[in-house]
Automatic annotation (TrEMBL):
Residues 27-194 form the Helicase ATP-binding domain. Keywords: ATP-binding, DNA damage, DNA repair, DNA-binding, Helicase, Hydrolase, Isomerase, Nucleotide-binding. InterPro entries: DEAD/DEAH_box_helicase_dom, Hel308-like_dom4, Hel308_SKI2-like, Helicase_ATP-bd, Helicase_C-like, Helicase_Hel308, HTH_61, P-loop_NTPase. This is ATP-dependent DNA helicase Hel308. It catalyses: Couples ATP hydrolysis with the unwinding of duplex DNA by translocating in the 3'-5' direction; ATP + H2O = ADP + phosphate + H(+). Residues 235-435 form the Helicase C-terminal domain. Its EC number is 5.6.2.4. GO terms for biological process: DNA repair. DNA-dependent ATPase and 3'-5' DNA helicase that may be involved in repair of stalled replication forks. Monomer. It is an enzyme of class 5 (isomerase). GO terms for molecular function: 3'-5' DNA helicase activity; ATP binding; ATP hydrolysis activity; DNA binding.
DNA sequence: AACGCTTTAGTGTAGACAGCATGTC
DNA sequence: CTACACTAAAGCGTT
């Protein structure tokens, strides 16, 4: 088998395995019963180890499947393209299954499926049949199990894989402090190695010099920096120019979007660039400006910087922006990117010199030290294979910091990772899912499951988390997402009678049994936080009540009820945890949003409630065709954030619609509002275009063109076909007509 | 009055997974 | 939101 695999690799240009890869094979990677935890640096060939593992299973039995789990959708797409190119010619079928894209409705016939932890979890929740054919799961960046927001999902997923399915698990990890502990939990062979394809020099940067530091923390080289004149006096200017003049490229990691933009504005490399380079930069500049019809502020700023050979990169940029920047940087046209950690985790963007500018970051009301693991990930980006003799990872220090403290970031042990299973939002969702899948039926199976998690493995004592779970169970029960049998053989969807003090009377806790309700099942499948489910349901009922009340008293006055409901639904999805983080309210905006809330009869308790209103208004303007640049300026948000909000809203409106179907609310206005919203959010267009938007080949722009010409629906198109032709052109008009004929919409 | 330095008050804070069913400019 | 960095404006002294 090994020979067969090596031959395939060779045909794909891999002549020799790298030391860590050999090491893993020697330790028995091809033994399908053996789990592995492999902790080696980025870019040292981790992916290939995963590929070898997958090939090992699939080449032997084409009916088997291997999963490759990655943390980002962008990475999934990247790997998908790569694997497809490499392995499809051998008849191995590669599929991509991520949130917004599915290769096929049915993944039955595929061998390698590239997915995210959340998507796989969702697939399991939907009880896909092919799971039984999976014989190997490779988990990239498995150390993310220690991530507060997403680690819990990964942990539950791995626990399920370990206990319920008979698969080989291969975890690929960055350097962590406690690999042994993680390996023990995984029941995996541990392989740790620090081999890198390009040598990495670590150092501390001052104003005028770099101190390179050896593995023992001693200064091994003092590298003086030439002082280049720079009118804007960026502290990092010398550090940057020094590298660029030597044919290198630089990544500067910042702790905020603002500081990334600022740094990139301060740097001007124009006078160090050739005529050809400047010409190419100008072309890219134009490309950036043409993403929107009217460039937004951030586009202009980015374009301006790019003209000087520098770019910034953060979540405020749209994916198009980011791709342009990444591409130009890889092609060595853009010399410097000032970025937030987006780039440290994301796609492959190596550089010569990686500079870390900040060691602290704002988080939940405090400035906290950035974990060493993350700093090392940033620094690890240095060293482009075949381009750089070595990479340089540099922490920049200013007057307030002292070199000694900084050294600890570069040498010595890294933080250990710890289970974040107890993070309530994630836990809530998974407890519900476990009950839905009948993995947890009663107290005993619940405790058994928890005992097999990393949490239990690390903390031993699970009584603390069981207390949290107890609270979650009561919440799920109270929300009627599960029904409980207290030991008398009867499942109840309601808590037992309360005594005078409001404490429920029930039987022996240990005899409790749990069952999912239809509502709970749907929430689990929709993959929303049960708490969000409760909020959505509660608010839908409230809206229904308002509308009913209005029928009697007319207290909503002149409001168009459909429009009122539409806004209310946007408001209600703004209250869910999936919509976090909410936009910031500036003090000058407070009155505006408060007025808006009062006007719409929505209760305001605190500043948090105003954020819901702001979030809802952003979405409301979006669906009412407010031009993007105007909208962004009005609410002081960035294009990337708007896109993200719209994406979230799309999903949540769908979920709201699904929950509405299950609930026993029958309200024509609400149904209509929900139906309309699905389309309006997707296309960002107002309701009069909906009829047109439902037609294939007609989007926001074409619909608006037609509408303004008086063509408002399907019938109009048929009746005025010549006019449609003149507006949209012959080809498109023909397509549309064909579509209408075939889809049987017209009865003529 | 123009300039430059220091103090102070105000402001804003990283990223990105999940449903479902097909084709925007 | 238990901190912090950054910035614009204000304060103050000098030429």
């Amino acid at each position: 088998m090994l020979q067969k695999i090596l031959k395939i690799l060779e045909e794909n240009g891999i002549k020799e395995l790298r030391p860590p890869q050999k090491k893993v094979l020697e330790k028995g990677l091809l033994d399908k019963k053996k789990n592995f935890l492999i902790s080696i640096p980025t870019a040292s060939g981790k992916t290939l180890i995963g590929e070898i593992t997958l090939l090992n299973h699939i080449l032997e039995d084409r009916n088997k499947k291997g999963l490759f789990i990655v943390p980002l959708k962008a990475l999934a797409s990247e790997k998908y393209e790569e694997f497809k190119k490499k392995y499809e010619k051998y008849g191995i079928k590669v599929a991509l299954s991520i949130g917004d894209y599915d290769e096929e409705e049915n993944l039955e016939g595929y061998n390698i499926i590239i997915t995210t932890a959340e998507k796989l979890d969702s697939l399991i929740r939907h009880k896909v049949k092919w799971i039984k054919d999976v014989s190997v799961v490779v988990i990239d960046e498995i150390h993310l199990i220690g991530d507060v927001e997403r680690g819990g999902t990964l942990e539950v997923l791995i626990t399920k894989l370990k206990s319920k399915y008979n698969v080989q698990i291969v975890g690929l990890s960055a350097t962590i402090g406690n690999p042994e502990e993680l390996a023990r939990w995984l029941e995996a062979e541990l392989v740790v190695d620090d081999w890198r394809p390009v040598k990495l020099k670590k150092g501390v940067g001052y104003k005028d010099k770099i101190l390179f530091i050896g593995e023992d923390g001693e200064v091994v080289e003092e590298y003086p920096l030439k002082i280049y004149n720079n009118s804007r006096r960026s502290e990092l200017f010398n550090l940057v120019v020094d590298c660029v003049l030597d044919g290198g490229s630089v990544l500067i990691f910042c702790n905020s979007k603002k500081s990334a933009v600022n740094e990139s504005r301060k740097l001007d490399l124009k006078k160090y660039l050739s005529r050809e380079e400047l010409k190419e930069l100008k072309r890219i500049k134009e490309e950036i400006l043409s993403i929107f019809d009217k460039p937004t502020e951030i586009c202009k700023t980015l374009a301006e910087c790019v003209g000087r050979g520098v770019a910034f990169h953060h979540a405020g940029l749209t994916y198009e922006h980011r791709r342009i920047v990444e591409g130009a940087f890889r092609r060595r046209i853009i010399k410097v990117i000032c970025c937030t950690p987006t780039l440290s985790m994301g796609v492959n963007v190596p550089c010569r010199r990686a500079i870390v500018k900040d060691l602290k970051r704002y988080w939940k009301g405090k400035t906290v030290p950035i974990p060493k693991m993350e700093i090392l990930q940033c620094i690890g980006r240095a060293g482009r294979p075949n381009l750089d003799p070595y990479g340089e990872g540099i922490i920049y220090v200013n007057e307030r910091m002292n070199v000694k403290d900084v050294k600890d970031y570069l040498v010595g042990p890294v933080e250990s990772i710890y289970s974040k299973l107890s993070y309530p939002r994630i836990l809530r969702s998974h407890i519900l899912s476990l009950i839905a899948l009948e993995d947890v039926k009663d107290r005993e199976s619940l405790e058994n499951f928890i005992r097999s998690t990393l949490y239990a493995h690390q903390y031993g004592n699970i009584s603390k988390i069981l207390e949290d779970i107890e609270e979650i169970i009561r919440f799920l029960e109270f929300s009627r997402f599960i029904s409980v049998d207290y030991g008398d053989g009867r499942y109840r969807v309601k808590m037992l009678t309360l005594d005078g003090n409001g404490i429920s009377i029930r039987g022996d806790k240990d005899k409790e049994k749990y069952k999912i309700t239809p509502l709970g099942r749907r929430i689990s499948e929709l993959y929303i936080d049960p708490l969000s489910g409760k909020v959505i349901i509660g608010e839908l009922k409230k809206l229904n009540k308002k509308l009913r009340m209005n029928e009697k008293t007319g207290y909503l006055g002149n409001w168009d009820l459909l429009d009122y409901s539409t806004f209310y639904i946007l408001y209600l999805i703004s209250k869910t945890s999936e919509m976090l983080p909410l936009p910031w309210i500036r003090s000058c905006e407070e009155n505006f949003f408060f007025y808006e809330a009062v006007r719409r009869d929505i209760d305001i308790d605190d500043i948090e409630s105003l954020k819901y209103i702001k979030n809802a208004m952003i979405l409301y303007d979006w669906i009412n065709e407010v031009p993007e640049d105007e909208l962004l300026e009005k609410y002081n948000i960035e294009p990337g954030i708007l896109r993200y909000k719209v994406e979230q809203a799309k999903w949540l409106v769908y979920a709201t619609g699904e929950l509405y179907k299950i609930l026993n609310i029958k309200n024509r206005v609400i149904s209509q509002a929900l139906e309309g919203l699905k389309i309006r959010i997707e296309y960002g267009a107002s309701k009069e275009l909906i009829d047109l938007l439902k037609i294939k080949h007609i989007g926001r722009t074409r619909a608006r063109k037609l509408y303004n010409a008086g063509i408002k629906n399907i019938q109009d198109i048929v009746d005025n076909y010549q006019k449609v032709r003149s507006i949209l052109g012959d080809k498109i008009a023909k397509k549309i007509l064909q579509e209408l004929m075939s889809s049987d919409v017209i009865t003529e």
